[in-house]
Design goal:
The protein is of the alpha+beta class and 129 residues long. The protein is built from two helices and six strands. A four-stranded antiparallel sheet has the order 2-3-5-6, covered by helices on one side. A two-stranded antiparallel sheet has the order 1-4.
């Protein structure tokens, strides 16, 4: 196989570090294993962030997400772990990860975690007519 899962999160320099802007990445095929049964868990994740000096490289993110396929993890733990790793790699102004897990035992779980850099606050919303 030409590529392998990896926990390495490669970054690149933010091309517009003077501007607040949002990067939104949809990850529709996240999988991990239930730590109790070993059965697969499936989720759709949405990563939203306002970069500071660095952005996450998408192929590296793909390999990183793949690395959870054979890992047992509770929904809450894996969502927080991923956000922590991404914050550590990119040091964003703001980052939110939303994980919408598919049904398990008749229950859907959504976990939302976020990070805000110290001293950063979002600009006020703009209302257009």
């Amino acid at each position: 196989m030409p590529s392998q899962p990896s926990k390495d999160l490669e970054t690149f320099d933010n091309p517009q570090p003077e501007r607040d802007y949002t990067i939104r990445i949809h990850i529709p095929e996240f999988t991990c294993l239930c730590p109790k049964t070993g059965q697969p868990d499936f989720a759709e994740m949405t990563l939203e962030y306002v970069p500071d000096k660095h952005c996450v490289e998408l192929k590296a993110l793909k390999m990183y997400v793949w690395s959870f396929r054979d890992q047992g993890a509770f929904h809450e733990a894996v969502t927080n772990e991923i956000l922590g790793d991404l914050v550590g790699a990119t040091q964003p102004r703001y980052m939110r990860l939303t994980a919408e897990f598919n049904v398990r035992g008749g229950i859907y779980t959504t976990v939302v975690v976020d990070h805000r850099a110290e001293g950063w606050s979002p600009p006020p919303p703009v209302s257009l007519p």
